[in-house]
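Subgroup meeting minutes
Present: P.N., E.W., G.H.
Scribe: E.W.

1. P.N. recapped why we're keeping a running log of single-chain structure predictions: easier to compare across weeks, and new members can see raw inputs and outputs side by side.
2. G.H. added today's entry (222 aa).
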Amino acid sequence: MNFESFPALDAIPRIRAAFTRRIPEIDVCVEREEALARLKVPLSQARTALGFERMLFATAEQVHGNIVQEVTEKSELPIAGADGLLTTQPGICLGIYVADCAAVYLADRLGRGMALVHSGKKGTELGIAPRAAEALCRTAGIQPSDLVAQISPCIRPPCYERDFASEIVRQLQDFGVGEVHDCGVCTACRNDLYYSYRLEKGRTGRMLALMALLPEPAAARA
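Output recorded in log:
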């Protein structure tokens, strides 16, 4: 399947994360909702390939704000008004759609909880990434130093006038996050691999950031 993963997240027990890429054979030169409709089947196939098909799939409304909400099996989906999701419950897959904005992955290094955030220019100005880190620490009963953060491909200078990825890194480091990783890839520079809202003037598809908290192995529970 057409997705990538990140070594820093791959190393964490019980956490599985991925980031889908452009699917060249699907025409997405349409408005957002139609583009997502055309991508629905391949994105569902990506979740299946990752072993997420039987998990609760939680997404957010994504309004370019700084609201972070906890997801449980009783949550009403998609989460209204939110741009960040967190959970400490196994068997839940979080999803965030992006096309130039960054997906920020946050995970406890021992797999006790995770968060996934949509952070573009506005969300970064509102500090949604450290806000999500704080909420995850509070909910999971952990410290900022226990967290590992990963920033996805997103638009960057010179294709964009603001380097919000570097701002996210600084915000998370200032909060005390133990590890902050940035892939350093620009979505507009690599339009062959990723969708770019700015380069394609709003008529394009979306990448899907995915992160799931896997159940604890039976042997570990015994």
